[in-house]
Each structure stands twice: as structure tokens, then as C-alpha cells.
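Bit of a strange request maybe. I'm writing a small parser for C-alpha cell strings and I need a real example to test against, not something I typed by hand. Could someone generate the C-alpha cells for this chain?
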Amino acid sequence: MDKFGVPEAAHAVIDRIVTPLEQKLVAALADETFDLAEIGRVLSCPFSLAELSLMSLEGVATFDENEAKRFADSAYRRGIIAVAEEGARDGTGRRYRIADFYGRLDIFAVTEQDAWRSLPQEVQTALDDWYFDTYYAGLDWSADGGKPTDERVLTLEETLAYIDRNHEKGRQIYLTDCDCRALRGNCGSPTLVCLSYRDGPNSFPDRGISKPVTHGEAKAVVVSADRAALVHTVNPNGICNCCGDCCYLFRARKRRGSGPVWPESRHIITFETGRCIGCGICLGRCRFGVFDKSDFSGGKAVADDTRCVGCGVCVSTCPSDALRLAPRVGRSI
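Reply from user aminoacidic:
Good idea to test on real output. This should exercise your parser:
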């Protein structure tokens, strides 16, 4: 548990997240880098009666090089081990290191969603809280004027242009399920919406979790996410389509009170009351409480722009053109 960084909330369910064979590898090799031969040596060692009671007969056999390779490929995809040194293109010659429970939990929730959802609800909640606290603690708020990461809120048009620019640079883009909503999982928004350009060792694409998509497919994902009222945020490594309540980025923003500084917001809504027809579409679209049901009086909406993140999700569907985006100049949240 200690060597893999397992929080207390996961102790009772650890065998459902990390197999006994994987646990044996972690316990033996957590303090060093290792190759396939060392994986085979550790997993070929005699097992205790307690260990044997937790595994099938397939865990008792001697691990030759091919079996060690199959195990390593699986453990790498599952986030149990990570690449420490690259080898040949076929994966041979790589040296590995033990990863940690933080990374494994992320991958587990994304790739084994039924297994994740089968855990007791109180365990899911506790692990999501732990994961968020760990994420938040790793943010450096002293960096670059209070921006711990280079995250920006973009409109739909800006996001599509961002994809175009990266396509012109020849960057491959990949699609995977949103890990925030996989872990939190209580808002009902689409999950297959995360786009990434990162594809080196220890990335989701390299682990075989994300799939490559075309330039056009990536843009279609963003357009679909916009229809679902998801907020587009970008960083140098990819594009997120956020719901506001599950998203770790916006949960951290709320805890920190970082307002438009982080994630960086360059726009804010303007509202022309005279144009409003009181349809309430904006109420259902906004993720941040700019519009409240109790604000609809006299057939008009009332907008609290101090809550606005500048995403434009409400603007794009306003039938009377009462909502527009303006540059955020000298405004704060």
C-alpha cells in the first residue's frame, strides 16, 4: 500500500483495482527500474499460500520472456508500471518503474468504468475526493502570475481554429473518455470528448487507451460537445470539454477563487435586456449560474455576469441575440 501510494479509502477494494500479481511486482520492485527479465524473475518466485488463494493457476507458472512481455504490456496499459527508459520500437529493451495509485485510479476509472461503478458509492466518493485533493495540492499557484497551468477558456469558433492551427503543424490528435467525469460521474454529460496531442511514453495513446482521430473528427467532437453545453478549454497538450461540476479544473478554480485568471478567461457576456424574450434557453445552457430561474421576472432574464467564464455557450443559442461576448477588460470575477 505504501509503495504504491494507496490511500486508506482504497485499502478494502485494492484487489479489485490492482491484481495480486501486480501487487507482488510493486512490492518487489518499487525502489528500482527493471526490465522484462526482472519482471519474469519476480513473478516466477514461489508464492505464499495467502497469495495463491487470491489468484488463479495462471499466476503460478514460471514467467518466460514472452509471458513477462505480455504481463508488462498489460501492466503498462493499466497504469501499474511506467516507462523509465525507452527501448526498441516493439517495446523490447525498455526499462520500467513502478507507477503510483494516482495514475492507476485515473486509468481504472476511464478504461474499466463498469468495475469502477461496481465499487461501493462511498468508496467512489472518497477516492474522487482524494484524487481531487491530490491534483489540487500539486498545482503551483506561485507560477506565472497565479496560473498553475496554461489553461484557457475558448469559444467554439476559437477552439475549432485552435484545432486547425495544430493540424497545419502536423500534430496528431487523440480522443479518449473524460477522466473527470469518469471519476465523478454524476452530471450525465457526454464523456467521449477529451482531445489530446500528447503521445510520448506514458501517455494515454502510448498505453493504447486513446485512439487517433482525424482533423475533421476532432472538430466534430468539439461541435457535438458545444451542443451539449460543454465548456471548451485548451492547453498546449490538448482540448477539454468541461461540464463545470465534475471537471477538476473548474473545481480547483472554485476552491481557489482564481476567477478569470485561471483558467484564463478573455471574454465576458454583455446582455441587452430589451432584446430578451424570456425563453430560458440560457438558463439550461450555462454551467456557472449566470442565469437563475428565480431571476426570470416580467418575461425577462437577469444575468449575473460576475459568474461568467466567457465560454459563449449561452451566446451561441440565444434566439434573440440578447447575449454577446465582449473582451474582458478590467473585469474580474
